[in-house]
Design goal:
The protein is an alpha+beta fold. The protein contains 5 helices and 11 strands, in the order βαβαβββαβαβββαββ. It is globular. The relative contact order is 0.22.
């Protein structure tokens, strides 16, 4: 049990997951058995409120952010998974990885429409097949990490190594920088 989360096997509780997440877990094979899910208050889905309320450390809470990179008329999308104690280097590392002139957080409506997930619950599990998935180098070493579930009303817990093994995932050194308060 992580903090006060009531974790249950994700495969047995598809009602706690967005449809693309369910499909991705079904395709994940044996690793899907290592994925748990817990219901939460959807009003507390944002990282700081969630961690404070449920007793989950920021050091195991991961954020999945959707980035739009543009070069000319072409827009490429990627998702970045970084710890809550860090921020993705969108204008440096991510922009170069996407071979884009400009990179920024994707507009909320675009991120929701393209992923089939709820804003504030977007997860790296079940992203579109043509997207890059960049995982911060700190993530794979985590015995358990907490990420979104595709909906605001739950969170997923899984080994960092499973996140790093998701389809299209690339573990990137320098993807995120520590937040200095």
């Amino acid at each position: 049990m992580t903090g006060s989360l009531a974790l249950v096997p994700a495969l047995r509780h598809p009602e706690l997951l967005a449809p693309p997440v369910v499909a991705a877990l079904d395709a994940l094979g044996d690793a899907a058995a290592e994925v748990d899910v817990a219901p939460i208050d959807a009003a507390l889905a944002d990282t700081a409120a969630f961690c404070a309320t449920y007793g989950v450390g920021l050091d195991i809470s991961a954020n999945c952010v959707v980035i739009a990179g543009r070069r000319g008329e072409e827009t490429r999308y990627a998702a970045c998974v970084v710890l809550a104690t860090t921020r993705a280097d969108v204008n440096g590392v991510v922009r170069r990885l996407l071979d884009a002139r400009k990179a920024s957080f994707a507009p909320m409506d675009d991120a929701v429409a393209l992923t089939g997930m709820e804003y504030g619950g977007i997860t790296p599990i079940g992203l579109p097949d043509d997207w890059a998935l960049y995982i911060d180098v700190r993530i794979p070493a985590l015995p358990r990490a907490i990420v979104g579930s595709g909906i605001r009303g739950s969170k997923v817990e899984l080994p960092g190594a499973v996140l790093a093994a998701l389809p299209h995932a690339q573990v990137i050194e320098g993807l995120a920088r520590e937040v200095v308060e």
